[in-house]
Amino acid sequence: MSIKVKSAGLATSVQDLGRPGYYNLGIPLSGGMDRFSLRVANMLVGNDEGAAVLETVFLGPELEFNQDAVVAVTGADLPPKIDGELQTSWTSLTVKAGQTLSFDFLKAGARAYIAVSGGIDVPLALGSRSTYTLGALGGFEGRNLAEGDVLPVGQSNANSEAGKFVPADLRRLPGNPAELRMLPDIYWHRLTEKSQQQFLDDTWKVAPEADRIGYRFRGGKPMEFVEREQPFGAGSDPSNIVDSCYPYGSIQIPGGTEPIVLHRDAVSGGGYFMAGTVISADMDLIGQLQPNTDVRFIAVDMQTALAARHERQELLSKVRTSLD
Prior knowledge:
The structure is a single chain. With 324 residues, the protein is an alpha+beta fold. It folds into 2 domains: 2-169, no CATH class; 178-313, Cyclophilin (Beta Barrel). Helices cover 15% and strands 30% of the residues. The chain has helices at residues 35-45, 193-201, 280-286, 302-323; strands at 2-7, 13-15, 53-57, 62-65, 69-77, 80-82, 85-86, 93-95, 100-103, 108-116, 150-152, 178-184, 204-210, 214-218, 240-245, 250-252, 260-262, 269-272, 274-278, 294-299. A 7-stranded mixed barrel has the order 12-19-16-17-14-13-20. A hairpin with a 7-residue loop joins β16 (250-252) and β17. α1 (35-45) packs parallel to α4.
């Protein structure tokens, strides 16, 4: 089975749950920005939760199917259409051979996930089908989709059926303002106490420079740094440090002005201090933020972060139960 790309939408790429184990070599995890929505899309069509799907941003693609298939669209509120007729998101749908799946205008969120029964069957690259465009690795020829591409699809299994539905109370999108919980980093002390509190008190806005590498935020007051002697090997700006590893979700503030949260395709290290790290349970929310969205950073401790991760796992369990 295959799918022909009649139009590619915006930054549409093949993604799964990523390729862990290579970050120390400078190859990022990649994978879906909103892993919760990716998993649920696969559940709806009967795939393994880590099967490859399509991730699309703001504007959906047009996809022509050459065989019958079951599909599901989750994540952003980007209403799907089959041959021009509106369908329901977070629902498994039948697409017949010769029909076209397309999308209406975006209503909320940023990234939608399109799962197809059998999964997108591009070759594995370092154990994953995820696209890392900067490295031209994985996905469909290491790039975002383009008009005319033909995507291979795997064999559906017996669990693939239309009519499954995920109720609204089991879905997850950011609020307004979005709240991103963070663990203060080992470099938090580089900020004065006044700036530490100001960073948490301010309401920030998502900047247009927001992609799979990182999200930039604007609108808060500039940071003030504790005075120091410039360390050997560090840059002269107070926000510079001796090069360090960057965890996913780390919050850099170059020059003390505009925070940047590193995401799935981020570099693995560098010379900017990190004010903190967004907890794993809230990383999905970042992938659904549109430019100019209001955001607050909330400082939490490790116990709270672990409890939030458990709550996210429980929500996934509830989705599995509801679909069974």
